[in-house]
Design goal:
The protein is mainly beta. It is built from no helices and 9 strands. Helix content is 0%, strand content 53%. The chain has a 6-stranded antiparallel β-sheet, with no helix packed on it. The mean pLDDT is 94. The protein binds zinc ion. Zinc ion (ZN) binds next to loops.
Length: 112
C-alpha cells in the first residue's frame, strides 16, 4: 500500500460510491433524508460519510437559512461531492450539524 491513499470500505449491500473513482462514500442505512436540493439537483442527507476531505469552512445562505458549512470532496479523486453542516443557526435545523449532503448526481449505486 505504500504511496497509496488509505480507502475505507463500508459494509452492507447498499453503498453509494463516488461516481468518478468508485470508492465508497456512504451507506443507504445512514440516509436521514432524501429531500434535499444540492448544486446539481437532488441530494441526500447522511449522518456518516467516508473517504471525503473537507474544504474551508464558510458561511452560506441556504434555502433553510444561514449555515456554517464545508464543501466535501472525494479524498481519492478530489471531485466535489456535496457539503457538511458544521453549524446551523435555526433551532429547527440543528439536527443537521455534523451531517453530510451528498449530491445524487455525483453518486453511483453499484449492484443494487
Ligand atoms: Zn472519487
Amino acid at each position: 500500500m505504500m504511496g497509496r491513499l488509505y480507502v475505507e470500505s463500508l459494509s452492507g449491500a447498499r453503498i453509494f460510491k463516488c461516481k468518478y473513482c468508485k470508492v465508497d462514500s456512504a451507506s443507504q442505512d445512514d440516509i436521514v433524508s432524501k429531500d434535499f436540493q444540492g448544486r446539481y439537483g437532488k441530494a441526500y442527507l447522511f449522518r456518516h460519510a467516508v473517504n471525503i476531505s473537507l474544504g474551508p469552512i464558510e458561511e452560506r445562505h441556504l434555502t433553510s437559512g444561514l449555515h456554517t458549512v464545508n464543501d466535501i470532496y472525494c479524498s481519492s479523486c478530489q471531485q466535489i461531492l456535496g457539503w457538511r453542516y458544521e453549524r446551523a443557526y435555526e433551532p429547527s435545523q440543528k439536527y443537521k450539524e455534523g451531517m453530510y449532503i451528498l449530491e445524487k448526481e455525483r453518486m453511483l449505486k453499484e449492484g443494487w
